[in-house]
Amino acid sequence: RSDVVSSSRVGWDRRADMANKSIAAPHRGAAVFGTMLRPSLKRTPEAAAVKDSAGLPWGCCVTPLAPAMDTHPNLQTIGADEVPRCCECFAYINAYCMFERKAWLCSLCGTRNELGQRYATSMQRAGLEEMQRGIVDVLEDCIEVDDVFSSDLRPQERPAVIAVVDVSGSEESVEMARTGLLAMLAALPDACLFGMVSVDSSVSVWDMRGDFPHCYSVGISGDGEVQVPLEEVLPVDCMLVQVSENRRGIENAIEMLAPTPPSFTRGAARGGLAFGPAVDGLLEAFEAEPFCSLRLVAILGHLPSVGVGSLQPIDGAAAARDGKKQGSKKGFDGIEASGDYAELADRVVALSACVDLFVVSEEGYAGIDALLPLVEKSGGTLVHYPSVAACTLPTDLNKCFSRPFATGALLRVRCSSGFRVARAYGHLSPDDQYENLYHVACCHSDSSFAVDFEFDNPSGVVANLDVHPTVQCAFSYTCVVPVGEGDAGSYQVQRRLRIETVRTDIGRQALELYSSVDAEVVMSLLCHKIGEAIRKEGMAEARMLLQDWLVILTARYNQHVMRRTGAGMDTSFAKYPPLQMLPRFVHGMLRGRMMDAQRASRDERAFVRHLCCSLRPEFVCLMLYPRLSFFEDLDATLPGDTPLVLSHSAIDQDTPHLYILDSLTEVHIFYPRAAKGAVPFPPPADSGVRAFVQATKEGRPLCPSVYNCSEGDASGLDFSARLWEDRHLNAPSSSDWAVSADLGYDAFMLALKEEVKGFMDSS
Question: I want to staple 109 with a disulfide (CB 3.0 to 4.6 A). Which of 89, 511, 649, 761 is the partner?
Answer without folding.
Answer: 89
